[in-house]
Amino acid sequence: ELNPYFIGRFTKAPNELMGRSPATEYLPEIKMLNKMRKTFIEQAEYEANPAMLIEDDCVIGQPATGAGDNIYIRPGAPIPTPWKKGTSSALTAEVIADQRQIIRDGFFNDLFDALADRRNMTATEVDSRRETKMVLLAPIISALQKELFDPIITRTLDLIADGKKLISPPQDIDVDVVYQGRLALAMSNMQTNAIEITLAKMAPYEPLGVFDNYDMDKSARDAWINAGAPAENLVPVDLRDARRAERKQKQDAADAAEIGETASKAIRNVSGAEEQALLE
């Protein structure tokens, strides 16, 4: 019941117990690439040391094919020539590169470089391209976090707590696992981008009070965390509220002083006007 070990399933079909990896889907491509590599090596070796076309008894001794060797032929005999098969190792290398790219794409390597095939892109286009790729990768990452990473972290904390190596947190604190890896931050940053886009769209309607629907403080703090900024640099909520209350108190005092000064001037002006009327 303590789950001594965990196994994460990369992907799985509906009602499937055992998971599968990209290698399962692309195993034929991987085998083909291995065969192509073997053929390429044999072909390159043959081009470096090809078979020779030699007429019978036209060479003195054994034909030498090593680097810097000399081949001695009899007078009037045809010169030995290498036998060309008509294949091209350069073309084979190009086909191998294409096959490698197919396998890389199958393992989602292309998702980690939004500019792999295009360099003349604006920052907005890069963000849009990255978000599109993250949508494809999000279910896989979420499944791994749920089935593998979360249980491992929770079990590790339980073992540390059982060994009296961890101070018990207060009962009113809800402990949650927050991932700070590049992929996790990229996925979280999608929410931040959605907040920014929504606020920008709603900006013209701010006079109508539409921003009252949003918790701006929580949105700002979430955006800070999702961007990967240090959480310890965030001011605690209690301290933030205390600073706001202090500023409001000072502002209220300043407003009251300004109102008092304005009222005092008005009273003096009225008193002066009455005195002037009596003198007249």
Automatic annotation (TrEMBL):
Keyword Coiled coil among record annotations: no
GO CC terms, sorted: virion component
UniProt keyword list: Viral genome packaging, Viral penetration into host cytoplasm, Viral release from host cell, Virion, Virus entry into host cell
A Pfam family matched in the record: Head-tail_con
Biased composition (Basic and acidic residues): 243-253
GO biological process, alphabetically ordered: symbiont entry into host cell
Region listing for Disordered, in residue ranges: 243-280
Claim: Translocase is one of the keywords in the record: no
Subcellular location: Virion
Coiled coil ranges: none
InterPro entries referenced in this protein's UniProt entry, alphabetically: Connector_podovirus
Record-given protein name: Uncharacterized protein
